[in-house]
Amino acid sequence: MYCCSFADKLSADIMGSLWDDLESLVDAPSSFSAKSGERGTIKPKANFDADQDAAALKKAIEGLGTNEKIVIEILTTRSSAQRQLICKAYEKATSRTLVKDLKGDTSGDFEELLVALITPPAEYDCHEVMRAMKGAGTKDKVLIEIFASRSNQQIKALSDVYFKETKKQLTAALESEVSGDYSKALLLLALGKRDESTTVDVNKAREDAKALYNAGEKKWGTDEAKFIEILCKKSIPHLRQTLIEYKNISGKTLQQSIEGEMSGDLENLLVAVVKCVKSVPGYFAELLHESMKGGGTDESTLNRIMVSRSEIDLLDIRAEFKKLYEHSLLSAIQVRNWIFNF
């Protein structure tokens, strides 16, 4: 028991140092502006042949029991764009969709992972949002993760898919699912209209830092609207400078102030936004650790992050994970699989 408590405390201390450290923040690279393929672990396969891959998948699926090794080898070593070409070649060769055949021959978390791999990124994000809103109770954790971490372009792309599939606006659907200040913040992010300017005016950042301080720490009660307006609209470079100015004014980090002033889903969303402003890879490293912590693995979160970040910044997420938890992401996944398959 002592060991677990010590490990948890050490983990909390390490995470605290990550989110409290604002040194070099302004000049640090941001995943919001990263181009697909730059910091991902999956790259387009050289000498790619969609017809050949489709034939190999057909053989692997149609045999006595699915040859999972072949399926995994192909789908995890091709880029998302190449997988889409494989899907087209497969349907042309078999008159069946690859997704339907994979669903018919696999099940559970493995099926979910394979389907995620052959789904275009915007469509996958959209379907995750739809699943989060489906049924009794909204899975706010998923909505917070997606809308806090995606760029304007990614949010607009998933919104377009949502409209194409449902003939409804995503913001209207979200508005019917969530309420209060949390709804206002989430809907602002879901518009995908965050300022994208790259220049930083230190004086304006200082003004926003003062406004945030006056809206929270300095007054009785909290002006949530001011936090929402600044954190959900201003550019990432501007907000990074604002975080530095805020600590200079307050003596606390903005994350610490939000955690002390707010609660519930609004707190969780704004803290996630602040973490992503600082470091999207650090944010996802923390979520991955949480997904594998305790008595069972949150496979949906694990799959979603691994697939959605595989061509964007998974190399950086791996590096942050190793730095934070002193073991590799790969070893953490392998250990969890060994424990629960033993």
Automatic annotation (TrEMBL):
Cite the Gene3D superfamilies for this sequence. Annexin
Q: Which InterPro entries match?
A: Annexin, Annexin_repeat, Annexin_repeat_CS, Annexin_sf, ANX3
* UniProt keyword annotations, A-Z: Annexin, Calcium, Calcium/phospholipid-binding, Repeat
Q: Which GO terms describe its cellular component?
A: cytoplasm; nucleus; plasma membrane; vesicle membrane
What's the protein called, per UniProt? Annexin
UniProt keyword annotation of Calcium present: yes
Q: Which family does it belong to?
A: Belongs to the annexin family.
Q: Name one Pfam family in it.
A: Annexin
Q: What is known of its domains?
A: A pair of annexin repeats may form one binding site for calcium and phospholipid.
Which Gene Ontology molecular function entries are recorded, alphabetically?
calcium ion binding; calcium-dependent phospholipid binding; phosphatidylserine binding; phospholipase inhibitor activity
